[in-house]
UniProtKB/TrEMBL annotation:
GO terms for molecular function: flavin adenine dinucleotide binding; squalene monooxygenase activity. Its EC number is 1.14.14.17. PANTHER family: SQUALENE MONOOXYGENASE. It is an enzyme of class 1 (oxidoreductase). Its cofactor is FAD. It comes from Oryza meyeriana var. granulata. Pathway: Terpene metabolism; lanosterol biosynthesis; lanosterol from farnesyl diphosphate: step 2/3. This is Squalene monooxygenase. InterPro entries: FAD/NAD-bd_sf, Squalene_epoxidase, Squalene_monox. The chain crosses the membrane at residues 6-28. It is a multi-pass membrane protein. Belongs to the squalene monooxygenase family. SUPFAM superfamilies: FAD/NAD(P)-binding domain.
Length: 521
């Protein structure tokens, strides 16, 4: 009997324990569901915070050149990256098609050089300048580099798709199509993003660091910087077929009236032609004003080798336009977030420096993040990453300043002093040797030094004044020379001021330059 009673008690205790466990699990499950509802108060808004997917280290908004390259770079370093891109189909743009040799070197440094393979990319070995029937060839100073190093030109969309594929090949990088509508903030710290999927579902994604790379039309930059966007001109883009450039494997800059025309190969059978139109308005395509303008004003200034193909491209009607934006970097350091790419900093696309700046920035950021194992201390991370804005400045500011200054010098003007500067620039570069190697090394991103830029810019101005003084100086010539120097100062100094004199020329005097990684466990 005692044995039977003991067995009964054991069964009773076991049954009570099981029932208690079931009750406790039910209570805990109910509490967890309440917490999840509080985290997503809006109806239909899901939460992506790591459950079932592996916790995210970094959210990247945008998968263009900057976003895709950054995703692969950080993913390769072991970070868990979630990329949200508005449209995953192959984009079609008329800029972002020429990568300078300095940018190609950064591509190699990031392990992305194979992204210019299998897209019919063309090697670019330098530039040709054309003016009033004269031309001069400026070759990149590539003697000290491996034979593979050169510029590359291609269809922008093909290049981006290759980089997206490369990023998606990493198991810790997730690419998702969705539109980010806002940043999620808590007490001034960005915690993640709110986005809509292709099907219209709304989700919240959380990560310790959000990097916004959503391009020149960014709708998120205002929260992270003080944007001062200038639109000095617009590009009208055409694709020329069945023709050859006067100088194969070279970009061509035609110093036309009223502003430059660019031509460069984008495949083995196609040449991109970009006609610059000053101001923010372009002739209407619907009324035929655009075709008339291109045929009557632009076509007579196109080299004979390209003329027939230029007319054929106009008649075909596949003309694209886009505004050329310029925006100095003016960050508002925000815990939990960072801006990169065209969302952060833009320059006139005349010199093709945008991708070089973006890839250089990625190298800087990668090196800063590499020693960090934990990104959760947002305040310390934000203070540390202020050094990013300082370390990037010499390279970015040199390319930005060169683009803005060259565009203004290359534009025709009714001012005789400005036209003398334009003529002096063409003749200075035509001298060859150090007079062409120095400027082309700046433009190519191979030697982006601010002091070298300023030295060559004012050397052009002094060269122009010297020409005016020959054979005999006169009061009129001296006056034009004085205005030429004054005009040169008026071109370059405002650009340098916007970039930041101290950051550009004396970055080592800024405390953030020496900032050490925060102690993170």
């Amino acid at each position: 009997m005692d044995a039977v009673a003991g067995a009964g008690q054991l069964v009773g205790v076991t049954a009570a324990t099981i029932l208690a466990a079931i009750f406790l699990a039910a209570v805990m499950g109910r509490r967890r569901r309440r917490r999840q509802r509080k985290a997503a108060p809006e109806s239909g808004c899901g939460v992506v915070d790591g459950e079932g997917r592996g916790r995210t280290d970094i959210i990247i908004v945008g998968a263009g050149v900057a976003g895709s390259a950054l995703a692969y770079t950080l993913g390769k370093d072991g970070r868990r990256v979630h990329v949200i891109e508005r449209d995953m189909t192959e984009p079609y743009r008329i800029v972002g098609e020429l990568l300078q040799p300095g940018g190609y070197l950064k591509l190699i440094e990031l392990g992305l050089e194979d992204c210019v393979e299998e897209i019919d990319a063309q090697r670019v070995l330098g530039y040709a300048l054309l003016k009033d029937g004269r031309n001069t060839k400026l070759s990149y100073p590539l003697e000290k580099f491996h034979s593979d190093v050169a510029g590359r030109s291609f269809h922008n969309g093909r290049f981006i798709q290759r980089m997206r594929q490369k990023a998606a090949s990493l198991p810790n990088v997730q690419l998702e199509q969705g539109t980010v509508t806002s940043l999620l903030e808590d007490g001034g710290t960005v915690k993640g993003v709110l986005y809509k999927t292709k099907s219209g579902e709304e989700f919240k994604a959380y990560a310790p660091l959000t990097i916004v790379c959503d391009g020149c039309f960014s709708n998120l930059r205002r929260a992270l910087c003080s944007p001062k966007v200038d639109v000095p001109s617009c590009f009208v883009g055409l694709v020329l077929e069945n023709c050859q450039l006067p100088h194969p494997n070279h970009g061509h800059v035609i110093l036309a009236n009223p502003s430059p025309i660019l031509c460069y190969p984008i495949s083995s059978t196609e040449i991109r032609c970009l006609v610059d139109i000053p101001g923010q308005k372009v002739p209407s395509m619907a009324t035929g004003e655009m075709a008339k303008y291109l045929k009557t004003m632009v076509a007579p200034q196109i080299p004979p080798e390209l003329h027939d193909s230029f007319i054929a491209a106009i008649d075909k009607g596949s003309i694209r336009t886009m505004p050329n934006r310029s925006m100095p970097a003016a960050p508002l350091p925000t815990p939990g977030a960072l801006l990169m790419g065209d969302a952060f900093n833009m320059r006139h696309p005349l010199t093709g420096g945008g991708m070089t700046v973006a890839l250089s920035d990625i190298v800087v950021l990668r090196n800063l993040l590499k020693p960090l194992h934990n990104l959760h201390d947002a305040a310390s991370l934000c203070k540390y990453l202020e050094s990013f804005y300082t370390l990037r400045k010499p390279v970015a500011s040199t390319i930005n300043t060169l683009a803005g200054a060259l565009y203004k010098v290359f534009c025709a003007s009714t001012d005789q002093a400005r036209n003398e500067m334009r003529e002096a620039c063409f003749d200075y570069l035509s001298l060859g040797g150090v007079f062409s190697n120095g400027p082309i090394a700046l433009l190519s991103g191979l030697n982006p030094r601010p002091l070298s830029l300023v030295a060559h810019f004012f050397a052009v101005a002094i060269y122009g004044v010297g020409r005016l003084m020959l054979p005999v100086p006169s009061p009129k010539r001296m006056w034009i020379g004085a205005r030429l120097v004054s005009g040169a100062c008026g071109i370059i100094f405002p650009i340098i001021k916007a970039e930041g004199v101290r950051q550009m020329f004396f970055p080592a005097t800024i405390p953030a330059y020496y900032r050490a990684p925060p102690p993170m466990e």
